[in-house]
Amino acid sequence: MDEALNEIQRMAAQFVWRQAVLPDSRLWHDLHIGGDDAWELLGEVVCRFQTSFETMTFSAYFPDETEAWRAGIGMMLGFRSDKKAVTVQHLAQVVKPGAWFDPPSG
């Protein structure tokens, strides 16, 4: 899994500016990867690891492209996002079975 984690950290880093991508970094809440960038990141995971996201409800974890910029500004101003959190580590854990599963609540 370390290889998958390192690769996903590298992939995610392409979408952030001046921010460390750590295993516990939340893709939307911390790294502000949303909309088309989130789709592209998940697509790279599919291509690299043949992982299925068929059962993932994208909108539960990420804003779509039209709402991402407003939601991102809101979060920078201190408003909380209503999206569920998914971390870089969880994405790496999803690679092992080859299919999406929801992260634990909490």
Architecture overview:
- By secondary structure, the protein is mainly α.
- The chain has one domain.
- Helices cover 48% and strands 0% of the residues.
- Helix 1 (2-13) packs antiparallel against helix 2 and helix 1 (2-13) packs across helix 5.
- The radius of gyration is 13 Å and the shape is globular.
- The model has no long low-confidence stretch (mean pLDDT 89).
The share of residues in helices is 40-55%
**Net shape:** globular
Note the total helix count: 5
Distance between the termini: 23 Å
Give helix and strand order, one letter per element, not per position.
HHHHH
Number of strands: 0
In brief:
By secondary structure, the protein is an all-alpha fold. It has helices at 2-13, 35-49, 58-61, 65-76, 88-95.
Helix and strand topology:
Blueprint: H1 2-13, H2 35-49, H3 58-61, H4 65-76, H5 88-95
